[in-house]
Amino acid sequence: MTNLIRHRLFWPIAVLVVLLASNLVFSDNFFTITLQDGHLYGSLIDVLRRSAPLVLVALGMTLVIATGGIDLSVGSVMAISGALACLLIGDLSNPDSTTKVLLVVGAAIVLCLVFGLWNGFLVAVLGIQPIIATLILMVAGRGVAQLITGGQILNVHSSPYRVIGAGYFLSVPVSFLIAAAAVALTVALTRRTALGLLLESVGGSPTASRLAGIRARRITIMVYVFAAAFAGVAGLIYSSDVSSADSNAAGNLIELNAILAVVLGGTALTGGRFSIAGSVLGAVIITTLDITAVSVGVPVETTLLFKAVVVIILCLAQSATFRAKVFGRFAAKRTVTA
Amino acid sequence: MIDTTTPPTAGPKTRGSGRRIYRPNTRHIPVLATLALLIVMYSVGVYNYDGFGDTQVILNVFVDNAFLLVVAVGMTFVILTGGIDLSVGAVIALTTTVAATLLAAGWPPGVVLPLVLLIGTVIGLGMGSIIHFFKVEPFIATLAGMFLARGLSLLINRNSIPITDDFWTRMAQMRFRFDQGVFISLNVVIALIVVLIAALVLAWTRFGRNVYAIGGNADSALLMGLPVGRTRIAVYTLSGFCASLGGVLYSFYTSSGYSLHGQGLELDAIAAVVIGGVLLTGGSGYVLGTLLGVLVLGLIQTIITFQGDLNSWWTRIVVGILLFAFIVLQRLVTRKAR
């Protein structure tokens, strides 16, 4: 039992279960999943579908935080990728051509890779603090997105594009499948190869890992490229879901939610270790929280208060000083009696 | 007046050598660069646009950015210690919302004004205590503060509340006229007083020297017997106070309270401080630089308004480019100093 409680995913899972259970109280058919027109329907499916963008962004953020960095620009990158995709699709002669839409999607992701390289260059080559380096793109990025869309909300009508965010494959939401594939890819890359170990060693100490023969600079650049690419895909999912590009609303505050998701999942902001499963859980918890707020009937904004409390509690729980101050006394007594 | 004093050295190497006579000058390079930029921007404006040379154009930059100036002064203290405060925008929203709600309920302004200032100060005090006592990262602690303040103001009222109180209206309409059509508002006077006090405190009080010392190297400061904890908490408290004072000025400026006021203002404040030449790693910079930074941001907006055919999103892009330029400049300067 203590082993179960000690497991680092215990508390995130407990929070998620409590949230889902509280939904059951307020809406009877929360857990019913029905099959309509060959699509799975139900609140649980909705949770999976709506958490896809945050899961993607949180994945990239996990890798960046594992190296001791942080990426504030993900929201702006989301806005840019959605804006570029919608602009290009609007220019297509036949917006329903699948190959052309795929090319557009590819172009948007390539642009995001370039932005990721830029962030990585600032952090790894110029040696600027990650918060500040990515702040530049966070500030300028929304301007760039508005430049692309001409300051307007671009609406697109393209059935292949709509599949990304709102479509179903084998009666499962496509956005969920994309997120699941990204998670599988990241897990395979970091836990089946030495990459995860290298990431953690760079996060632990860049200097020591460089001296140990790890190309720390290359790894740092790579995580920012990953984060930007995942953010780009998330931006495509978001803009495809609403069939438009809104440079202000796309990815608004998602960097903070993603950081929150990562912290919820037990990854320390100091870097050096990370938990992908934890971050995914964290992202699902945050989405569930938003959906719960709606079903309970409180304004969605009040979830901010809840998030504030959660962040404070989690940070205090992770802070060694706090544990020593509060629980240290009990621990000492216990050892005496034992 | 501030330039005559040299803050304690920021770099880890403080051993003397003959060449260090030049060192105070490298410290001034970012501020001088900002001043040069400001002069160039102003000259370009005067040369290109009719009526740009009016005194009132410059004064309007002050009138429109007085609240930002006050917030940025608080941010300067925080960044000088090597921290960051993300909560300022949300604290502005909370201040305006609480003030508008209480005034609408018929509370006397003499009670409301100190109360809202107290709220901001207490939030700052809380964040500072969490950062110091529990060794939580400033980024995360102030993020929680941001969620808390924004959530609270949304909980109080989600709509914009007009302020019709007599005292508030009188303060909002108070003008100091120098000449026909040449005036500044009360906000500007308050903001300039804040800048003056902050500059004096930083340059000539024990507290100010402690702020520089902690930003230079917190461990050495502690070993030197400086009150690191007290100073650090005081800095966040001060930033909270400045944010709520900025909120009061904002409510004078807009005559309303709204839970969405000041969104993204923390970024503007950080950008102003950085462009003003304050080192983001802490330990070096001046309040005068922050004043110049705010003026640069204001002048960018003025030029874009005068240009007419440029859209507002160019502001963000230009601010991003300037941020990048100044951060790289900072890197070069600190590298040379070592």
UniProtKB/TrEMBL annotation, chain A:
InterPro entries, per this entry? ABC_transp_permease
Q: Name one Pfam family in it.
A: BPD_transp_2
The membrane topology noted for this protein in its Swiss-Prot or TrEMBL record is: Multi-pass membrane protein
Q: Does the keyword Chaperone belong to this entry?
A: no
Enumerate the transmembrane spans.
51-70, 77-95, 101-128, 135-154, 166-189, 219-238, 250-269, 276-298, 304-324
* Transmembrane keyword on record: yes
Q: What is its main location?
A: membrane
Top-level taxon: Bacteria
Q: Which UniProt keywords apply?
A: Cell membrane, Membrane, Transmembrane, Transmembrane helix
Q: Where does the signal peptide begin and end?
A: none
Localization terms from the record: Cell membrane
What protein does this entry describe? ABC transporter permease
UniProtKB/TrEMBL annotation, chain B:
One Pfam assignment: BPD_transp_2
Task: Quote the subcellular location field of this record.
Answer: Cell membrane
Question: What transmembrane ranges does the database entry give?
Answer: 29-49, 61-80, 86-105, 112-134, 140-161, 182-204, 233-253, 259-280, 313-333
Q: Is-annotated flag, keyword Membrane?
A: yes
> Is Membrane included in the keywords of this UniProt record?
yes
According to the lineage, what is the superkingdom? Bacteria
Keyword set, alphabetical order: Cell membrane, Membrane, Transmembrane, Transmembrane helix
Q: How does it sit in the membrane?
A: Multi-pass membrane protein
Matching entries from NCBIfam families are given as:
PRK11618.1
- Please report the name of this protein according to its UniProt entry: Sugar ABC transporter permease YjfF
The species this protein was found in: Paractinoplanes bogorensis
Give the gene name. yjfF
